[in-house]
Amino acid sequence: MNDAFAGAASFAALTLVKTAPILFAALGGVLCERSGVVNIALEGQLAAGAFAAVVVAGATGNPLLGLVAGVVAGALLGFVLGFAATRFAADHIVAGMGLNIFALGACAFGIVVAFRRPGASDEVAALGNAGEAALIAVALCAALGMHAFLYLTPWGLRLRACGENPAAVRDAGLDPARLRTIACTLGGGLTGLGGVFLALAELDLYSDGMTAGRGFIALAAVIFGGWTPLGAAAASLVFGALSALQFGLQRSGIPSEAMQALPYLAALAALAGLTGRARAPQADGVPEERRFD
Amino acid sequence: ARHDASGKAVIRLAMVTDTAGLGDKSFNDSAYAGLTAAKTQLDADTTVLESKSAADYQPNLTVLADEEYDEIYAIGFLMSKDVEKVARNFPKRHFALIDGTAVEPNVSAVVFREQEGAFLAGALAAMVSKTHVVGFLGGMDVPLLRRFEAGYTAGAREIDPRVKVLVKYAGSFDDVAAGKELAGVLYDQRADVIFIAAGKSGLGAIDETRARPNVYAIGVDSDQDALAKGKILTSVLKRVDVAVFRLAEEAIAQKLPAGTEEVGLREGGIALTPFTYSRAVVHPEMIATLKKLRADIIAGKIVPPKTRESLADFKPVTP
Amino acid sequence: MDAFALELRGIVKTYAGGVRALDGVDVTIARGEIHALCGENGAGKTTLAAIAAGRLRPTSGSVTRAGNAGFVPQHPHLVDRLRVWENVLLGREPRRGLRLDERAAREDVAALGATYGLPVDPRARVETLDAGAKQRVEILRELAREPALLILDEPTSALAPAESDVLFDVLRALAARGTAVLVVTHDLGDVAAYAERITVLRAGRVAARFERGAQPAAIAGAMIGGELPALAARTSRATAPCFEARGLEAGSGAAALRGFDLEVRGGEIVGIAGVEGNGQRPLADAIAGVAPYRGTLHLDGRELAPGRPAARIAAGLRTIAADRQREGLILDWSVLENLALGDQRRAPLGGGLTLHRGAMRDRSASVVERFDVRAPSLDARVSMLSGGNQQKLLAGRALAETPRLLLACEPTRGIDVAAAALLRSRLIEARNAGVAVLAISLELDELFEIADRIVVLFRGAGAGEFERGAFDRARIGAAMAGVRGR
Amino acid sequence: MTRSAWAALAVLALVGAGATLLAGANPLAAFAALLRGALGGPQQIAETLVQTASLLFPALAVAFALRAGLFNIGADGQAVVGGLAAGLIGAAWPGAGALSAALAGGTLAGAVWGALAGALRARFGGSEVIATLMLNILAGLLATYLLSGPLRAPGADGPETATLPASAWLPLLAQDTRLSFALPLAVLLALALQFVLARTVYGFELRAAGKAPEVARRAGIDLGAVAFSALSFSGAIAGLGGATIVTGVLHRFNPALSPGYGFIGIAVALVGGLEPLRIIVAAFGFAILQSGSLTMQAFAHVPRDVIALLEGLAIVALAARRAFVARAPVPP
Ligand SMILES: Nc1ncnc2c1ncn2[C@@H]1O[C@H](COP(=O)(O)OP(=O)(O)OP(=O)(O)O)[C@@H](O)[C@H]1O
Ligand SMILES: Nc1ncnc2c1ncn2[C@@H]1O[C@H](COP(=O)(O)OP(=O)(O)OP(=O)(O)O)[C@@H](O)[C@H]1O
Ligand SMILES: [Mg+2]
Ligand SMILES: [Mg+2]
Question: Span A17-277: which CATH code?
Answer without folding.
Answer: 1.10.3470
